[in-house]
Each structure stands twice: as C-alpha cells, then as structure tokens.
Write a structure and sequence with these properties.
The structure is a homodimer of 603-residue chains. The first copy, chain A, is an alpha+beta fold. Chain A folds into 4 domains: 167 residues, Glycosyltransferase (Alpha/alpha barrel), CATH 1.50.10.20; 161 residues, Alpha/alpha barrel (Glycosyltransferase); 85 residues, no CATH class; 113 residues, no CATH class. Chain A is 34% helix and 18% strand. In chain A, the strands form 3 sheets. In chain A, strands 3, 13, 14, 15, 16, 17, 19, 20 and 21 form a 9-stranded mixed beta sheet that branches. In chain A, strands 1-4-5-9-11-10 form a 6-stranded mixed beta sheet. In chain A, a hairpin with a 6-residue loop joins strand 7 and strand 8. Chains A and B meet through helix 10, strand 13, strand 18 and strand 21 of A and helix 10, strand 13 and strand 18 of B.
Chain lengths: 603, 603
C-alpha cells in the first residue's frame, strides 16, 4: 500500500482550496514576519552576541525548517519569489554556518558550543528531523539539492556520533521527530542507511541500554521498548511522532511487533484518550496524555501539533491496513481539533484547543486555563509552522493505492493523476464537503477498484457494492462516474460514560464537523442551554461568521427569574425558548473573548 | 433579642444527643491524644529546645484553647475528671509561663521572642481570642476564674500595646477571632472596655491607617472599612469570624452601618457563594471565597471551620432580625457541610468538604484535589477542636427570645428553662428530626408567643397562625402542646444556572439533609446515573451505613455495551435500571476511598 502524495494531485476548489490559498497568501507571510521579528530567521546568521536582542533558542531551527517545508510545498505548485527568496537566503546561511563536520544548530553553533549532544531534551535531533523534512520537500519542489546535501552531511555526522562512536551523552533524542524524517529520507534517496538509523533510534528507545527514571520515562516514551508500548503515554506530540515512525518502519520492514504496538496504541488513543474533536494530550502538565477517559473540556490541553500528529500517525496506519477507522480519525482531526488551531483570517493560532471556555473563571485564583484568543506567535511557536506545512500538503491524505485498488480516504475537490500497478489513472473529485455530503468522482484510466471510505459518522449509508472494513468497493473503468451521497443530518453524539465531564450531554455533529456554541451568539449561562435538535438548520445567511456556515436551532434556558436572590430552588419546569446559534468548532474564538461550549444538553 | 444559650437547656435525645455523646466519649479523647502526641499540649510547658521533637507552632495555642472550650461545655453539663484534669494542668502551665506583662504564646514565649506583635499574620491575637472563649467557658462551667483572670491580663496588655501605645508592628490582626471573643468577654464581665477593644479592631481594619496591598488586602478582609464590605472576600474562616464580630457589635451598639454591611454580606454569601451543603470558601488558593457562582464540586475547598463559621454568623444575624433565612442557613450548615467534617466513629476529620470525589483523577498529574478520607490530625488542625466545641454547645442555636416572644430556630430533642421579659418558661421538644419532620413542643410557664421557624425546604407547609418572616406565631400558655409536622418528601433542587457544574443536575434533599451517592454502593460512573426520584424511600434497614438512614431509589445508567471500544456514539436510548443507594452527605467517606457525588441527573 502506497500513499499518493500531494504532488500527484491538485486541490482545485472548495473548502481546502480556500484554506490553502489563505496559507499561501496570508499565513506564510504572517508567520514569516513574526519569526523574522523574533529573531528566528536571523538566528541562521549565527552572529548573535550577549547583549543583542533575540537570543537564539535550541528549537528555533525547527520553527524555520517547518516554514521552509511549507514554502516548498507551495513552490511545488507554482512560482513564488517571496517564499523562494527567503528559503534561498536561509539555506545560504545554513550552508555558510554549518560546521565542517556537518553540525548545525543556530543555538549550539554559537552558544553552549560544548553542550552539543550532551542533554537529551535539548532538541538538536528534533531540529535536524525538521531540516530533513524541509530539505526533501525543497529538493522535490525546486530540483535543487544543495540544502539536502548539506543536511545529509549533518545526518552522516549524527550517524557517526550516535551509532558508530556512541560518543553522545544520550542514546536517543528526548523529542522524537528524526525517526520519521529518516524514513522520508530513505524513501526519497533509496539509501538504506537512513532506514537503519531510524530503526536504531526507534529500537534503542526504552531499552535497558537507555535508562531513564520516573516521570521522564513516560514523558519521553522511554518507559518500555517500542514493541511493548500499548498505551499512549507522555508528551503527546512526541508520542504521535514516535508512533508515526514506528508505523513507517512496520510498513517498510514488515515488522509485526511494531505493527502490533501501533495498532494497540491507535486503539488506546481513539478508544480511550481522544476528544471528539480528534484532539489528544488532555493534560497541561508536560503536555501529556492522561489516564483513560480523562478528557476534561475546560482544561483540555489538546495541542495543535499533537492533534496534527494524530492525523500523521493515522495516515500511516491506513497504509498498514486499509480500515476506514484510520481515515475517519484523520477526518475528525482535520475538520475539528486541528483546524481550530488557526484563525479564520489566517494570522493567529491556538497552541491549546480546549472544548469549553469560560472567561469568568479566569478571575478565580490559582488555576490554569488555556488562553481564550489565538496569538500571532508564541515563545514556543511550534504550532503555526506546523499548520502551514500540514495544510499545504493536505492532499497527502486523499488517496492510497495497493495494486489496482485506489483507496479514497478523504473527500476534497481535487484532480489527481498517478500510476497503478497495471496502468494509470486520473481521478477528479467534485464536492461541497465538509458541509455537503455529495461527492462526484470521475474516473479515467485503466480498470481499477475504487475503495470509497464510508464516513464513520454516516450511519444510515446503504452501500450498493461490497463493503470491506468501511470501504465500499467500486469496480471502475475509464469514464465512470461515481455519485456518492453521504446524508448529513445533525447527529447528537454521546460520550462514553467513563468521561466524567460529558455525562448527560451531547456533542452535535453534522457530517465531520463538530459544532459548538459561543456566548457572543447565545448569551449567558451557555452551559445551561438545552437544544431541540429537530429544529436545527444550516443557515443560508453566512453573515454570522465571515462566510462560515452556522446553525440556527431552538434553544431553551431555565427562567432566571425563578432564581432571583436564590442559589437553589426546588425543581421547576419553566424554560424560555430562544434562537440558539451553533458554529463549527474550528471557527470558535474569532469574534473576541467569549464563552464556548461543545457538550450541550438536549430538550 | 437575646440568644438562649446552651447552658439554659439540655439536649435530651435524638440526633444531636448521639453526636454530643460521641464527642464526649470518643472525640475529645481522640483529639487530645493526637494533640498530646504532636506536642500541642506539651507546648504549654514552654521548655522546647532546638533538637527536640514537636517544635511549637504559632497557632497551636488555638487548637488547645478550642479543646479546653469544648471541655468546659461538657463540664457545664456534668463532672468529667479526665477533661477537668487536662484543663487544670494546661491552665497551670499557662499561668506559670505567662509573661509578667500578661503575654502568652507557646511559640513566641520561647522562639522568636523578639518577633512578638511584629508580623500581622502570625496568629497571636487569633490565639488570644480562642483563649478568651475558652476561659469564659471554663469560668462559667467551673465557677473558677483563675484562667479567665490570667487571660484578661493578656487582654489588658494587648490593649496597652495596640490601642494605647500603638507600638505593635500592625494595627489589626491578620486572622480575625479576637473581635468576637472580646464581645463575649464584654457580655460575660459587663466591662465595656472589651467592647471598645473589639470595636477598635473592627473599625480600624481596612482603613487608610491600616494599609495593605494587592492580594493580601482581600485575603484578610482589609480591602475596605467594615461598613463598606458588601461582598464576602478572602480567607473564608477569617471572613465569617469577622462578620460575626461585626454582627455582635451591630447588635450591642445599634450600629446601622455594621448591620447593613452584615446583611449584604450574608446575602452575598447565601445568594452567590455558598454550596447547597452550606459550605463556603470554594477556592483552594488561600482558602478563599471565589467570584459569584464559582462553586465547583470536585475541587471545593469548603473548609469545615468556614462552614461552622457561617453558622456562627447566621446565628448572630437572627438576633439582628428574626428572619427565618438565617436559621435556615444554620440548619443547612449543621446537617451537611459542617457535619461532614467528622467521621461517624468520631475519630477523624475533614478539613475540606468537597461535593464530589473521583479518586481516579488523582492519577492525573499536576492538579490538586481535596483528600478523600478523613484524618485524625492535620499539621494545621484547626477543624477537629472547632467541631468538638461547636457540637458541645449546639444548644446555642435552638432558641432566641425578644420580650415575650421565643423564636424556635432549630428542632432538637431538648428541655429548656429560661426567663422571659415577663415571667419564665420551660420548653420541651420531642422530635425525630432531621429524618422525621414531626416536632412536639410542650410549653410550660407564663403566656408567651412561640415563633416557630417554618423550614425553608418545607414548601408545602400550611400555617394555622400568622407567619412573620418565616416564623409561625403561636400564642401559648402553660400546658400548651404544639404539634408540628413538616412534611419531608424527597425534593430535587436545581442550582442557579450561573453555577456551571450543576447545569442539568439536581441535588436531592429530604428535610434538611442533602443526600449523595457513593461508588461503594452504586458502582462505576456514578456521574452518569439518572434517578427516578418517585421511587425513593428511606430504608428501614439501617445496616447500610452504621445506623445512618439511607435511601433506596431506582437508578439508571447508560448501557456500557453500546460503548464497547468506542468513545463517542450517536444518541441512543438504552439504559439499565439498578437499585441505587443515596446516603446523607454528612456520612460520606466512612467506608474507604470511593467516588462520591451530590449533583445527580434525573430520569
């Protein structure tokens, strides 16, 4: 099973075209400007001195690398002098300031030079991983490989230090990333030494040779050998990057142990430790996974990078086995807990993605809540450049192919052309997804099987063809047109009773979109609202929220006059109807600080 | 309006007789033993030296003083050599080690001697306040006044230092208590200088002469002059002790400004900042009141001493104006958020009284929850001796009299005899309260009016006589018997919609008792239970919980099989009935660590 990469297709219109255009036309410059003014780009000059502003940081390279990777994905699809010039300048500086031995890090090049590879958690190999991904993307997009060659020199140096000489102060990096990047490098170059390096880092982690103690063990996924990790533990971004690499290796090495662990980890996440938005890592302390079913809404950490990482892991799982639950999870993430990470204007970002906001609680002392408004840049600003690289390459998620079977995993208006085992094909999708469940798939090319994912939320779907693990199998030939219609009623979802916060409450979805209510539309006490979901309708009028489809629905609140000067009164039945408004969760917090709630009550 | 004190009556049977016997026979010794072994009593020897265990603490005197006060209340009702001997020994040491100038504090007598009256928050005057209360009680009970005389020497010294010389490093104490104690001393001695001292401390607090900054201002109720404080702020125990003194002064001085502030503060607490259990001070940070309606259940701080203090404040408010909401609040506190502070066996105590417990959440890192099991002693062990003095003198809450009107505020099996304005009376109460709403009041004596409180929870009550501010006015003469019957159905209470945690949930009460469910009776996922309250019945079989009446009721849980391997499923209707058990909230956590919940859902 092979992924059809975004290079083999174009997003031609609709929801994601609008997002990609926003990234290209607005976000890339906004992120660049913030990174420029905070010194992240200038750090590549390696001329910082004590007393100057913007002292480089150990992980700033990764921020810029992800931005370059995104730039490359955009360059792949067309000229862009602005992006190209910034990339070239930065690559010039990388090459100029790279050590003779290949080493580069804007922090360690000039600060704490003697601490290179001395502290496991200082992100050097994490940064290198992102350089690898950026350099591959840039080489593909521009057909120029000087950046990639320079990065490969660094990789070779890492191989020498970590694997041949074992002279570093630690065996495996504190923050995973290089493991999956090395697999990409193997895929691109065909050089097996990179696959071996990845395998070394994955297999050495959590072994007796690589001991850690207490808290840090789970935090860094170093508590057990990879093949024995069955529950998602520790820092959630690190975890899903690691699991992604494990899946990559399982596929390429046919490693049943890694595959088994990946399957169990995916199940643990999606059956015990994931918000309905696809967000993961509920615990603020250490940005970690918590215990099973511990998914509080108000204090959800749910980092954008972690949610995005779950999509990366899930996409790889689809390649291990075409079971629709993997692509279902991708869909859950990309339309909800990932997309909430960026503002509608494309200029501001959430690091944390809570499922409920109550600004007044901030007046309470001594407790920590996620911020309520997106920011343009963070001190630890990993999320913004991760978002731009992810959206720019989101075409990666649409298709996978095995022999002459093409798996249609995501529905996005697009045109693709790629080879099959026997022949080739062109596939065009026309759809108003995610707000319209009609999808027209036009097929040209050699006879093939189109395995069309029946979305997990579409419980009423009646298949006309055999269904295998959630995919409807269409036999197609040149000129065939498949008209899919996934009915999109409003559906109230219950949460597993073990999730404390959601008992007696429902999350409203329509298709893949999770809806929420905001105080700005619905007034005070939004937690007290009961909705009559039978009255819900998507608004034609798109003026509520800058063109984003919203929902009008009859809501009911308790009559506050019953509580005049009273905290507690005997149960009554007086409720007051009003026109409630729901908006897609991903679009919350775009109209100033206000209450927000996903899990509501029904009348 | 005058309070009829517990000395003028006897609790003769029923609920509170059992509690008073438990205190006398078990708890007093248990608290003494813990205080003895932790050095609190030996601290009175003032011979601690560096290297010895049990270094005295600045507030240990108050722990012992409250214990002596409780002992005096018990001695008031009968001989008890064990208690008397300990009191005498301790008083001997107090007198022996008291400074020539009257000063005594087991910490500052021998440690940090030069820091006396230098640090506002170091509890010296707080300890003195408790000595005053203890000494008055002991003098009343034993007719021996050497302790009181010694304490009064200390009081005179405080007057000299704080009021005459103003030589202390602060003007008013960090932790209020002496203010209300000085009023007691005035009441007992008739010496107006003590009333003036109390007034000085109350009126100086929060004035420009007594500036504090930022957080500490509200924490100590020093942010505004007393007459301008209308919202309950800061450390909740300090707050209600302060408000109690304000009410005391308002009554004795006819001070309208203080009365007005007290009324507003009472309203702010009971209409915005009080749990249904009568608990207050929801915020762990600084043991403080939070903002309006911020009453989370799981993280409720709700210190036993604060809840008890609300009863003290409310009792005083009844004397300002006989409005039944004050005695209603006393009732709410004493049967719920106060009484939960002590275990059924009388040996262990809660400092915090949460309204919900979820032991599994403790596995989550980085968050703070109240402890789940009562302890025998705490480092800061203010609550246990406060409980024993409170229960031993609970008769204080039953009656108040004004002219020939006797206000019957609480229903407890008891016999009282006291003077009226014109004549005298004996009143006997027979009742199975709080589990039985029948109360028989036998009146003997001169003609009078009995103002019988109609409990706030008893919404269906039909009065046969005029009702004034919640009291039914019975004209009585010698030999009259009043048969009251307060119907006690199970009632589901709603919380004000502004209280986030309780939206869609109900607290079940029967009479004054708030009920809760525990995991030990009701299994997993108790937050998911829906009760059919129509099926509720008080159990005849008292074996569930050591003789405490419990409730059997049909409960429903969602069918977990619908969630096999799933976190989120479309709304279904499959629920599974089971026999649920509710117990009085005050009796929770007596059978090992388990989940607990007050606010439940209804079918």
């Amino acid at each position: 099973m092979k992924q059809i990469s975004f290079e083999q297709l174009d997003i031609t219109g609709g929801f994601w075209k609008q997002k990609q255009d926003l990234i290209k036309n607005v976000t890339m410059k906004a992120v660049y400007d913030r990174f420029k003014e905070t010194g992240r780009f200038d750090g590549f000059k390696c001329d910082w001195q004590e007393g100057m502003p913007n002292k480089p940081h150990i992980f700033w390279d990764s921020d810029v690398a992800k931005w370059i990777e995104a730039a490359a994905y955009i360059l792949e699809k067309g000229h862009n002098d602005f992006l190209r010039n910034i990339c070239e300048e930065t690559i010039d500086l990388f090459i100029k300031n790279q050590d003779e031995n290949g080493y580069f890090n804007q922090y360690f090049n000039i600060i704490d030079c003697d601490k290179r590879f001395k502290v496991r958690d200082w992100h050097e190999l994490y940064c290198l991983g992102h350089f690898i991904e950026a350099a591959i993307a840039y080489a593909k997009a521009t057909n120029e490989d000087r950046f990639l060659k320079a990065v490969c020199r660094y990789v070779d140096y890492v191989k020498k230090v970590f694997i041949e000489e074992k002279s570093a102060a630690f065996l495996t990096p504190g923050h995973e990333e290089i493991e999956l990047a090395l697999v990409k490098l193997y895929d691109y170059t065909g050089d097996k030494k990179y696959l071996d390096m990845s395998r070394y880092f994955v297999e050495t982690r959590g072994t007796p040779e690589n001991p850690l103690h207490g808290w840090e063990q789970k935090y860094n996924q170093s508590h057990l050998p990879a093949r024995e990790q069955f529950t998602a533990e520790g820092h959630s971004v690190r975890a899903v990057y690691f699991y992604s690499a494990m899946a990559d290796l399982a596929i390429r090495l046919g490693d049943e142990g890694l595959r088994n662990a990946c399957e169990k980890l995916f199940e643990n996440i999606t059956e015990r430790r994931m918000y309905i938005t696809g967000a993961i890592g509920s615990m603020p302390r250490g940005e970690q996974f918590s215990i099973d079913y511990d998914l509080p809404n108000l204090t959800a950490y749910a980092e954008t990078c972690a949610n995005l990482g779950l999509a990366l892991f899930s996409r790889r799982m689809t390649l291990i086995e075409p079971d629709s639950r993997y692509a279902d999870t991708v869909e859950r993430v990309i339309y909800n807990g990932f997309l909430s990470g960026i503002s509608l204007d494309g200029k501001a970002f959430f690091y944390e993605n809570p499922l409920e906001i109550a600004p007044k609680l901030r007046l309470r002392e001594g407790e920590r809540y996620p911020i309520t408004q997106r920011l343009e840049v963070f001190g630890c600003s990993c999320c913004p450049p991760n978002i731009v690289r992810f959206i720019s390459s989101i075409g990666d998620f649409i298709y996978a192919a095995k022999g002459n079977i093409v798996y249609v995993n995501q529905y996005m208006e697009s045109k693709a052309a790629f080879a099959l085992e026997n022949g080739s094909c062109e596939i065009e999708q026309q759809t108003g997804y995610p707000f319209d469940g009609k999808v027209t798939i036009k097929y040209k090319g050699d006879p093939a099987t189109l395995a069309v994912r029946i979305p997990g939320w579409c419980t009423g779907y009646v298949a006309a063809n055999p269904v295998v693990k959630g995919y409807e199998m269409y036999e197609v030939k040149d000129g065939d047109v498949i008209e899919l219609e996934f009915d999109m009623p409003f559906v109230a979802f219950e949460a597993n009773p073990h999730i404390r916060d959601n008992a007696g409450r429902y999350a409203i979805m329509r298709g893949p979109i999770v809806f929420c209510m905001e105080g700005v539309d619905n007034g005070d006490c939004i937690k007290d609202i009961r909705l009559d979901l039978a009255t819900a309708c998507l608004t034609e009028d798109k003026s509520v929220l800058d063109g984003v489809p919203c929902v009008k629905v009859t809501g009911y609140k308790r009559d506050l006059s019953r509580f005049e000067r009273k905290l507690y009164v005997p149960k009554g039945s007086s409720i007051i109807p009003f026109e409630a408004t729901m908006i897609p969760y991903y679009a919350f917090a775009n109209r100033g600080e206000t209450d927000m709630l996903i899990w509501t009550m029904l009348k």
